[in-house]
Amino acid sequence: MDYQIVLSPDLEVSAGEFAEHWNLSPQGDEIGNAATAPAAAKSFLDPNIVLAVIAGAAGKIAVDVIKDLVKEKVKALIREKFARKDEVEVESVLQPDGTYLIIVKR
Known about the structure:
This protein is α+β, with helices and mostly antiparallel strands. 32% of the residues lie in helices and 25% in strands. It is built from three helices and five strands, in the order βααββαββ.
């Protein structure tokens, strides 16, 4: 299963930074690799929103586990980039095709 990760611009974390951070962690090997989404995937969203995709995630992993891992990765990126401990909010939205959007915002 693929998960689209939607990162709010106010987080100041790019999709590329998220993907790189994710892929260098154990989660990248165990759950699935992350990559930036192609521009076509963004067409239905606000163009200021950035997307990453965790592709090929193991099907038996609950969406709540993915949400928690994404939250921790984004918080770690913010700590590394800005030396801040921002809180982030993560929501999941089930799409009609059965995939999930994981939305990360402040």
